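Protocol step 6 of 9: fold each sequence in the batch and record its structure tokens directly after the sequence line. For illustration, a two-sequence batch is reproduced in full.

Sequence one:
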Amino acid sequence: MRLVPVQKLKEGMKLGKKIYSADGVTLLAVGVELTNNLIRRLMGIGIDYVYIQDVLTEDIVIPEVLHEETRRKALRTIQSSFQKISESSITSRGIGGYRHLGRDFSVVMQSILDDLNSQEVTMIMLMDMNQTDHYLYRHSLNVCIYTLILGAASGLSHEQLKVLGIGSLLHDIGKTQIPLEVLLKPERLDDKEFEQIKSHTELGFKILKGEPDIPLLAAHCALQHHERLNGTGYPRGLKGSEIHEFAQWLGMADSYDAMTSHRVYKKAMLPHQAMEILYGGSGTMFDQKKLQVFRDKVAIYPPGMSVKLSSGETGVVCRIDPSIPQRPVVRVLTNEFGEVLKAPYDMDLTQQLSIVITQVEGLDTFGETTIL
């Protein structure tokens, strides 16, 4: 299968991966044949890309990071908990009327860790664009997966990963206290509204620190995830080692997923674009060594993505070598003149060092998408 921008979908194409609702319920199943009406609905609910079945790429496997039941349970827990908190009173002692936050998220976190361990997930290839909003729930889960893989790569213990994961799942919980008209405003925020958005870090800390079953370090993840090495972050303007290591991982993952997700006010960036922006803050906003680990663990050209090569040929990423994720195996489908090959072949970019990826298919590139 391959990843196709929704604006380039055509009637008769068949879905290669499910489309999920905000709480993990299947809206469209694998194999559904798209109609013009369905394509318009996909555009309307904020999905930028979908995976499509294709004879030439039918053997390309798009790995699932989590089992479907784990993903559904996590999203439902995030949704129900955030909704309860948004309706509850927040005091210095925690959340009035809701006493199971720590227990609920500990159970979910153990399921996520079990999935990542059982599937030996070592690379981040989410490209989780087959899910409708609510953005906040999806973002919370994605960021959690990113930070857990990065934390494991840096040698954290199981207990440390559990704390990091809970802090990641709940890092934006303070946004439950922000008015929806501000949180979902499609236009540029004014200064007052931006200050309201920034307050979610301290609000999140206030919510979590009063919960007896939530580790205090998880609360500090919520407080510090917008701090930056050079002191330009918020809410406290912390610098360097003043920012906890967990919050530093979280800050990178939060920024990356925000850039690669569809928002009410912007389209999703492609992974390589977001990574370039992160690297622009290397050594100033983000720790250089941690960013290197992040880059080595993120598939900026995930399987199924259409790419153009410096040779002029185009194709679809079909496999990734985890040791060199920036140079995948590409199934070449057209020659340098744009002609469809009668016999497509796989090119391993780790062996063809003179050839590089120069472009990836987005909403405004490559012209028409041909599916066989």
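Sequence two, same batch, same settings:
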Amino acid sequence: MQKIDKFYTFHLSHKTKSKIYIRRVEVSKRILHRSIAGLILTISLTVLGFTNIYKNNSIAKSEILNLNSSAIITQHIAQNPNNKSFEHKSINYSHPVKSDNFSINSGAPVTSIDMDTEPVIEEADLENRMRVIQTTSNPAFLPTIWAHLGKINNEYGFRRNPFGGRSYEFHSGMDIDGEKGDSVLAPANGIVTKADWQGGYGNLIEIDHGNGLTTRYGHLSQGNVQAGDTVQRGQLIGLVGSTGRSTGPHLHYELRLNDKPINPRRLLPLEPVELKKAD
């Protein structure tokens, strides 16, 4: 190879039995340098691309592992409600926080309502069902008296989260104010179907009154009946409390039709005027 200012000259030889052939090849320096630079750039970009793919795969695997770990932890908590590491903290009412942070004497479990997937009882259909139930049922089995008389702290329907913040949640019953130990009475005859701890309800009693009607009593400090017991209208079934997801002593009262919550006021009389005016 001979080096000239603008070209590299190569001599290529080829030998046969009788002759020797020599060929002279000239290559432009500029073209050769650009080709080498292009080859180096291509190799660099290829290596960089594989490096990024490897990093992205590593990050994706790490995120999947984190999600799986979170799911395992969540499942562990759900399956082990008595695990002391995740024990529910009760509120100390002797030193309450500012009233802006939570509603006084409210609570109940968090109820998620998806209007696109959850079966909804249409108003007209509900009216027809209730009319049939009220006209064909034994009046003693209709929950038409108050289980506990007190100021209504929260009505049935959507409300602001009683524990603070700007979020809203669906409240499946009524919160009736009271003092710990106040009496809770059966509003109608029926059979007790639940009488135990039920998550956000705390100590819960549920009574089946027939025809698809059931009532629930949440946050009780004490239950005086057991599942399977037959109760009569006006019978003492428990005491007001603040167990479960609650900010203070009150009764969470629910009316359900075919296990779907409906407004308890559909069967209840108006509360006394003095309770409405209470602060």
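Proceed to step 7 once all outputs are recorded. Observation for sequence two: Residues 123-276 form a domain with the Glucose Permease (Domain IIA) fold (CATH 2.70.70.10).
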